[in-house]
Write a structure and sequence with these properties.
245 residues, alpha/beta, 6-stranded mixed beta sheet, 9 helices, 10 strands, 24% strand, globular
Amino acid sequence: MPYLSIENLHASYGKTPVLAGIGFSVEKGEIVSLIGPSGSGKSTLLRVLVGLNKPTSGTVSLGGRAIDYTNRRALREARDRFAIVFQQYNLFQNMTALRNVAIAPVKVKGRNAAEVEKEAVTLLEKVGLGDKLNAYPDELSGGQQQRVAIARALALRPDILLLDEVTSALDPELVKEVLDSVSLLAREGMTMLIVSHEMAFVRQVSKKVVFMDEGRMVEIGPPGEILDRPKTGRAREFMAKILRH
């Protein structure tokens, strides 16, 4: 049984369809990357999974159990199992890196503050920020802020980590430090869904790649197949453009 199963998922913004029949599965510990042109529905799919946008039809199952996105309790339980990191870091500017990571598990989940702070230190060390525990966001580079955001998501102990173009707002020289942190999580067996335009990174960490266009899943397969030998004309056109640069 797949760990995460998405079946015939549809979603709309008002009357505008943005997801049209998306369906694929993710195994525990697997990394699946979503690629495709802007506006293809990649980020919307992540937002639907975590309940920020409601599906209009279709099924999302986690651990064999369907998520009822119309039920508050079920939605809360789902959000306990997913954590999402956005393009923008959205850190609390008046809090240190350590406080940014520790606040949600204490305030939202009611966990012991001392235990959470100890775990937050470990997480910040894991993403290479052990020397920045008491730094405020405006004292950190964009790459460092994004790594704090990743540590903050991990502090929620999610089953699945959702990463939405986490390097797109960064200067090129800062991209590698964030991707290195994500690669470490991949080696540790974290289940992840990643939206990315960093094709070398997608190739390196992904077990499967989903190519999306206009809200539809056009192709799915191993990275070597999707990036190097796409079957559809639309995927070949996209790869020819993006891999040329």
